[in-house]
């Protein structure tokens, strides 16, 4: 190791995968070293990563890139990337200084050189009177996703019927709480009794069901929403989306945020009920959170007071150490995690 | 026959159908008679029907009613209904007088008693310096459908790429011409060489293809839109919709207007590519023209001058006599008709 260099532990993608990910698809490498200075030629920032976030979209980057992508695809045999909270150790970028706390896209490693902070949407953390880890969740990308999808796309009104799938996840738990604060009736689906209990007793959902115990999603939705659904925040796609469409009310809105039920399939399931979108004049729109990052300050102005007053709660699942990442990421797809998953 | 009564020829639905309709599913009855006066107890209008319109949605009313419906379902063994142009023979309704020309939902028969003109959206025809038959098409429900879908839902901009399916039909031909007038690049699909020729040489589309000659809709669309599609006006659903989704550009818009490819199927085809709506932030919205009838005057103000200046042309397929209706209606599904189909 040269002077001023440190060993940099990294999470490496072994090979591109198909189907369900396994813990062994990722491994920890301690081979690399790096200097703790931004190189002369760069105007980036060098950070120490404090919290790294495991999010469902990362599964899509673990396969061979094909078609359009929203994130820089992973490379077989290289370090993976994702959202994190980090501390700036050195900066040649005018917007960031040594000592700043930031959140945004970073490497899944101890130290990262972020060469283009503008492109990676690196945000400076201004409010540190909340847990820093929140900036990987409720106050970061998932929080902005919930905010943009619910308020900007769904245009919710008091008294409307709201359904959220994957509702105990980072995005879903916040959507449900936003909906309650708006005076909506909210039901969520999740994949275990423990999560169903969390939805009702922790997040204040009006109803919840364990989708793994339901043979007929249409029947489950009719039971939970005898009057139908005005707003569906879709995190899962596939058969659940198809069943929700059957239960939409006139002028309903569906925000397509993720399709986690489909990410491990080679061919996505067909959705057969789109004709109902005509009968019911339903709006369906795909959401990518980047498009709404200009609203981040407005979002914080809404959410920070709610958090401080205890009107919004947040459940995280935090493990210690980079070594815990492979299992945590894989756990997102087996339902092992509860709440937001971080290292 | 009592005094003041006339024989009333009617088009009757023999029995509820499934699958493709046949001419023999409908028959002409001359059994009924009716008085040419609005009954004392009613505040409706009595009309003589002049033009009756065969539209694809009517297929949906020919099957046993199930789930949500936008129109009053047909009854086995009774007269069918649809859009028409008619002359008021007698009225007890304050908004209509004897001699008025009107368009709206009426019976498929020589004379109809329209008991609730408000509910049936009966419009008085104020401009008679265009062919009256236009009020079943370009100046009636299909015209308003094209207008609402294109301008109100799709929010088109100059230079955008627009695709229209069933483009030679009543709605499609107008959408294409609106798009050209807006400065868009427009391609249409249709089901014969004759229709493809019409699209390019009569309606001024930039491109067109015969979907029956294409094995791979995705490849056909990539050929026609190397830069992708900004706006899709969907009249057919199914496999074409699925292929279009693959070719949508960022922030594209899809208006779901009809799914004529699916109406004769017991179970609709699955659409597998919805994940692309997320990647590309696409908006998809179901359109029901009733919701936009308040814009009818605004619509006429736009379209009438275009028609008079020859900037919008319109192709109708008119047959003589109620007897022609069964074949005309069935023809909509075999591609026999060219342009708008009326009796």
Automatic annotation (TrEMBL), chains A, B:
Keywords: Oxidoreductase. Transmembrane segments: none annotated. It holds the Pfam family ADH_N_2. GO terms for molecular function: 2-alkenal reductase [NAD(P)H] activity. Residues 22-340 form the Enoyl reductase (ER) domain. SMART domains: PKS_ER. This is Enoyl reductase (ER) domain-containing protein. It comes from Nyssa sinensis. The lineage of its organism: Eukaryota, Viridiplantae, Streptophyta, Embryophyta, Tracheophyta.
């Amino acid at each position: 190791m040269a002077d001023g260099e440190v060993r940099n532990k990294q999470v490496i993608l072994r090979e591109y995968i198909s189907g369900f990910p396994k813990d062994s698809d990722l491994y920890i490498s301690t081979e690399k070293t790096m200097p703790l200075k931004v190189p002369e030629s760069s105007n980036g920032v060098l950070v120490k990563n404090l919290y790294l976030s495991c999010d469902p979209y990362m599964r899509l980057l673990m396969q061979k890139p094909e078609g359009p992508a929203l994130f820089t695809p992973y490379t077989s045999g290289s370090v993976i990337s994702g959202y994190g909270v980090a501390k700036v150790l050195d900066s040649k970028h005018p917007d960031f200084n040594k000592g700043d706390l930031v959140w945004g896209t970073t490497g899944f490693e101890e130290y990262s050189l972020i060469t283009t902070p503008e492109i990676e949407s690196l945000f400076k953390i201004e409010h540190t009177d909340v847990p820093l880890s929140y900036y990987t969740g409720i106050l970061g990308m998932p929080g902005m996703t919930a905010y943009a999808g619910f308020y900007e796309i769904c245009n919710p009104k008091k008294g409307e019927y709201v359904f959220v799938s994957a509702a105990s996840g980072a995005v879903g738990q916040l959507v449900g709480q936003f909906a309650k604060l708006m005076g909506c009736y909210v039901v969520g689906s999740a994949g275990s009794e423990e999560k169903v209990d969390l939805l009702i007793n922790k997040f204040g959902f009006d109803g919840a069901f364990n989708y793994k115990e339901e043979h007929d999603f249409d029947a489950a939705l009719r039971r939970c929403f005898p009057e139908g659904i005005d707003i569906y925040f879709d995190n899962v796609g596939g058969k659940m989306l198809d069943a929700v469409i059957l239960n939409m009310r006139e002028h309903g809105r569906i925000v397509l945020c993720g399709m986690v039920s489909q990410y491990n399939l080679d061919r996505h399931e067909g959705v057969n009920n789109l004709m109902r979108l005509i009968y019911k004049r339903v709006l369906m729109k795909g959401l990518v959170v980047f498009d709404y990052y200009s609203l981040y300050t407005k979002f914080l102005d809404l959410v920070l007071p709610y958090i401080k007053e205890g009107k919004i709660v947040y459940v995280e699942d935090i493990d210690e150490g980079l070594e815990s990442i492979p299992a945590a990421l894989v756990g997102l797809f087996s339902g092992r995690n509860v709440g937001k998953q971080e290292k």
